[in-house]
Each structure stands twice: as C-alpha cells, then as structure tokens.
C-alpha cells in the first residue's frame, strides 16, 4: 500500500513539472537591427551660412566747388575694420580642406574665397590714388568693401567612436573698390551705404 502511494506521488510530481515546463514560454530575442548611416570622419557638413557686405576702408571727404581746378585729387585710405579669414573649432581640422569644402558648397560662380589667414588688402601710402575730378562738383569719397561670410560646420559623425569637430569659419570674397558722391544712391555694392552714412552724414538720394 505504501509502495502504491509513493508511485502515485511520483507520477503527480512528474506530471506537475511537465505542465510547468510547458507553461513557461521560451525567451525570445528582442534585438533590433539598426542600419548605421554612412559617414566618414573626414567628411565636412555645413550648417548656417551668413553672408553680409562689410565696409573695410574709406577715404577722406573731398569737396569740389563749381569751376574749381581738380586735376590731381588724391584719395587717402582710412581703415574702418580688419577682415581676416579664420577658423574657430573644438579640435584640430585641416584648414585648407575646410575652406575648399566651403568654396565648393557655396558655388560662388568663379569667385574665389579667401583662405585661412588672408586679410583684405588695403591701399598703402598712395591711398586710393590720384584722380582727375575736373568738371565735377559736390562731395566725393572712395570706398573698399567685401562680402563677409560666417559659416558653421562639423567634421566627422555623431555615430562614430571618434569625437566630431564643430566650428565656425569666417572668410570673405568679392572685394569692391569705387568712388561715390554724397547725396546719390550708393547701389548694392558691399559697404558703400555704410561709407556714405559715415562720411557724408546724410541719407543717400536718387
């Protein structure tokens, strides 16, 4: 009788274990396959690019009266601001590659972009030169302006083990030099309107 009871107990235990084994689900893999974006550590991506005309130098104001001889008027150069191409970055970057990449990205239509360390050249002791102003009347000045560029960039990839380098490039292009008359519309040349307001002291008129 005891033997029969033991057999029954053993059978129940085995049956119970079998049910528990069936009830417990087998663990399934929860890994998700993510395709890594194509990226290279030496690749440069550009962010915001701002371009603005800036005044670099002006001359003194030259006043010519009607009938006054004005064959040899010399316009002297007075610097207003220094514009130099440069890079500010969180790490080391090859400057030549960064400037070349920006030039290609902007597609300036044949105009060259100033490279790292290039400053806008200003007239020396000779100034803007000597002009024959015979027959002209009014107030005149000479001007130099450029288009100043400020552009943010990143070199590398956020998904890479190598830390990307972030930075900003300041550079310039399109140096423009000319003469303007006070009271006349200065047009769209970079810095000319600012020069008029600084030296002439009045709003340009058409």
Give a written overview of the molecule.
The protein is α+β, with helices and mostly antiparallel strands. Helices cover 20% and strands 33% of the residues. Strands 1, 2, 4, 5, 7 and 8 form a six-stranded antiparallel sheet that branches. A two-stranded antiparallel ribbon has the order 3-6. The chain is elongated, with a radius of gyration of 37 Å. The relative contact order is 0.22.
Quickly list its features.
206 residues, alpha+beta, 3 helices, 20% helix
Write a concise synopsis of the structure shown.
The chain is 20% helix and 33% strand.
Topology:
Layout (H helix, E strand, L loop, with lengths): L1 H22 L20 E16 L2 E3 L8 E3 L1 E3 L6 E4 L5 H12 L22 E3 L6 E18 L9 E17 L10 H8 L7
Antiparallel strand pairs: 1-4, 1-7, 2-7, 3-6, 5-8, 7-8
Helix-strand pattern, N to C?
Answer: HEEEEEHEEEH
Helix content: 10-25%
Largest sheet features: 6 strands, antiparallel
Low-confidence regions:
1-21, 29-37
* Annotation, overall tally of beta strands: 8
Instruction: Report Rg.
Output: 37 Å
Shape: elongated
């Amino acid at each position: 009788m005891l033997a029969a009871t033991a057999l029954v107990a053993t059978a129940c235990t085995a049956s119970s274990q079998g049910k528990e084994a069936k009830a417990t689900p087998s663990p399934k893999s929860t890994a998700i396959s993510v395709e890594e974006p194509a990226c290279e550590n030496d690749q440069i991506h550009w962010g915001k690019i701002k371009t603005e005309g800036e005044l670099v130098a002006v001359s003194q104001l030259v006043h010519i009266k009607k009938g006054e001889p004005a064959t040899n008027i010399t316009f002297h150069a007075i610097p207003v601001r220094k514009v130099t191409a440069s890079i500010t970055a969180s790490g080391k970057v090859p400057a030549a590659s960064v400037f070349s990449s920006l030039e290609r990205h902007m597609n300036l239509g044949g105009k060259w972009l100033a490279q790292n360390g290039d400053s806008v050249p200003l007239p020396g002791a000779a100034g803007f030169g000597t002009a024959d102003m015979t027959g002209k009347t009014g107030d005149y000045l000479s001007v130099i302006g450029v288009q100043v560029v400020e552009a943010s960039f990143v070199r590398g990839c956020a998904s890479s083990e190598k830390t990307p380098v972030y930075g900003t490039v300041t550079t310039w292009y399109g140096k423009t030099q000319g003469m303007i008359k006070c009271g006349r519309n200065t047009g769209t040349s970079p810095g000319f309107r600012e020069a008029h307001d600084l030296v002439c002291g009045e709003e340009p008129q058409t």
